[in-house]
Amino acid sequence: MRSRSWVITNLAIEALVMSTQQEELMKKLEAFMIQQTQSNYDLKTSTNDLKAAMTALQTNQAAMEERLQTLTQNKSNRQEEEDESVDKMFESDRFDDPSE
Q1: Mean per-residue pLDDT, 52-74
Q2: Backbone φ, ψ for residue 74 (5° rounding)
Q3: Among 1, 4, 15, 87, which residue has the least CB neighbours within 10 Å?
Q4: E strands, the chain, where?
Q5: What percent of the chain has pLDDT over 70?
Q6: Alpha carbon 85 to chain centroid distance?
Q7: DSSP 62
Q8: Percent helix, strand, coil in the chain (nearest 5)?
Q9: Where do Basic and acidic residues bias regions lie (predicted)?
Q10: The pTM of the whole model exceeds 0.70
């Protein structure tokens, strides 16, 4: 009889140990899944942050290119005005010069 009760006790203990191990594994699995979910969220957040930074950089680049184009056009216009002014000065000097 004693051996029978010993077997039953051992089976009960073994079942309890297996149940405890299963609970621990389930907790580890749950923690892993939470970690993966957080990692995925962090990755999405990082991706969104990068997209926003890229958009901001592209916007700044477009604004800088537009500003450069405006400055280049203004410089070109000023150069034309200066050239015209110099041409007019030479023309008026040429006609006013009594030696010619």
Answers
A1: 96
A2: -60, -45
A3: 1
A4: none
A5: 90
A6: 51
A7: H
A8: 95, 0, 5
A9: 86-100
A10: no
Sign of CA dihedral 77, 83, 84, 86: positive
d(CA 71, CA 5): 97
Nearby residues of 94 by Cβ (< 8 Å), 6 or more positions away = 100
| 59 HSE (CA, 13 A, CB side) | 6
Contact between 19 and 12 (Cβ < 8 Å): no
Whether 67 contacts 73, CB under 8 Å: no
Which two three-digit tokens encode residue 61? Answer: 């680049």
Residue burial 41-61, b: 16+ Cβ < 10 Å; e: rest: eeeeeeeeeeeeeeeeeeeee
Looking at residue 79, its amino acid is Q
Residue written as tokens 């029978």? 4
Amino acid identity of residue 9, one-letter, is T
- Residue 1: pLDDT band (50, 70, 90) is low
